[in-house]
Amino acid sequence: MRTLMAWPTGLAGLFLPRRCAGCDRPLMIGEDSLCLHCLTDLPRTHWHADPGNPIEQLFWGKVEVRAASSFLRFQRHGPVQKILHRLKYQGDRAVGVQLGRLMAEDLFACPRFGPVDSIVPVPLHTSKVRQRGYNQSQVIVEGMCAVHPLERPADGLLRVVRTSTQTRKGRWDRWANVHEAFHVPDPSTFRGRHVLLVDDVVTTGATLEGCVRALQAIGDVQVSIFTAASA
Ligand SMILES: [Zn+2]
What we know:
This protein has a 4-stranded parallel β-sheet. A two-stranded antiparallel ribbon has the order 3-4. 39% of the residues lie in helices and 15% in strands. By secondary structure, the protein is of the alpha/beta class.
C-alpha cells in the first residue's frame, strides 16, 4: 500500500524539469548540470600560468608547492556559491563531476601543472563522509579523471583527526592540529611523484597546508594544488 501511495510522487519527479545548479533556470536538452549561460559566465580566475598568483601566495613561507591555482572566484550569493552548495549539501554529485571535467580542461592546458603522476582529493574525516555520503573533492576528482585520466590511489591520504575546533585556536595551534590530521598510510604510493591535491574551496589554505606537510614528510614528493573555487 505504501509503495502505491508513494508512486505518483516518484512519477511526477520524472517530469519535473531539471534545474541549473548555478541559476536555477530549467535546463535544456543537452545541458548537463549548468545552463549554457552559467557555463559561459563562470568567473574563471585565469591564474594558472602566473607564478606567484594569489593561491601560491597563501603557501609562501609555509610549505613548498610546485604550482597552485583555483578554477573560479567564489562570490557570495553568486552561481559558484550555489554550485558548491548543491554539491556539498544537496547530494548533487553530477554537478561536482561536471565541475571536475571543466577544471581538468582548464588546468591541463597549462604547462606549469604538467606532468602530474597522481591526483588526490583533500580527504574528509570518515564520520563526515558517512554523514554526507561522499567526499565532494573526490567527486570533483572523478570528473577531472574522466577527461584527463590520472592515477588515483585509493586512501593514499587519510584524515585521522577532526579539525572542527580550528576556528577557536590560534595560528600555531591550528597548524599543529591540521598537521596531525593527515596521514599517508603507505609512503611508497607517492615517493618520487608529482601529486596534484584537489579541494573544493580554498580560504586560508590551512587544510591544504596540512596535506602538503603530510605528503612532503615522506620525502621526494612534489605537490601542486588546484581548487574549484577561491574564497
Ligand atoms: Zn544557469
